[in-house]
Amino acid sequence: REKDVKCRNWKPKFLMLKEDKDRRKSSEDVERSIFKVKKCNAEKSKKMAKEETLFRETFMYDKEISIINIAVALCSVPSKRRVDLPITAGEQLDVIDTTEGNEVICRNAQGRYGYVLVEHLNFR
Questions:
Q1: Rounded to 5 degrees, what are φ and ψ at 105?
Q2: Tally of CB atoms within 10 A around 58
Q3: How far apart are CA 95 and CA 111, in angstroms?
Q4: Domain boundaries, given as residue ranges, for the chain
Q5: For 64-96, how does the pLDDT look when each residue is reduced to its tens digit (9 = 90+)?
Q6: Least CB-packed of 24, 83, 94, 108 within 10 Å?
């Protein structure tokens, strides 16, 4: 009788292991998708670092980059100069620094930096 009990228990365990294998396969697919997201984030961070170095060279900015305020663009404005930041209406911008004139240095969601006139921004 003990041998019969062992055989009976063995078959359901075997079937359960097969189910566990299926579960593992589905969890591996989830892990793979997570790694794809991390890869995209790594590429995005590289691009952001490149934009930051370009910003530091162009504007001769030695200070630490910190966000002073968040502003929303009131209207769309194309860039007239190389150092101007083109903006679209409703775009959210991080204000990095102020200047002596009526311009502020801003960063958009793509990580680009440039001057924006205060008249075109709505501060919260």
A1: -90, 125
A2: 12
A3: 12
A4: 30-123
A5: 888 999 999 999 999 888 899 999 999 999 999
A6: 24
Q: Enter the CATH code of domain 30-123.
A: 2.30.30.40
| Amino acid identity for residue 28 in this structure | E
Q: What is the mean pLDDT of residues 1-17?
A: 51
Strands 92-98 and 113-117, bridge-based pairing: unpaired
Q: How far is CA 94 from CA 11, 17, 29, 102, in A?
A: 62, 53, 37, 16
Record the pTM: 0.63
Instruction: Compute the distance between CA of residue 102 and CA of residue 117 in angstroms, rounded to an integer.
Output: 6
The two tokens of residue 123 are 């501060």
Contacts of 58 (CB under 8 A, 6+ apart): 82, 83, 113
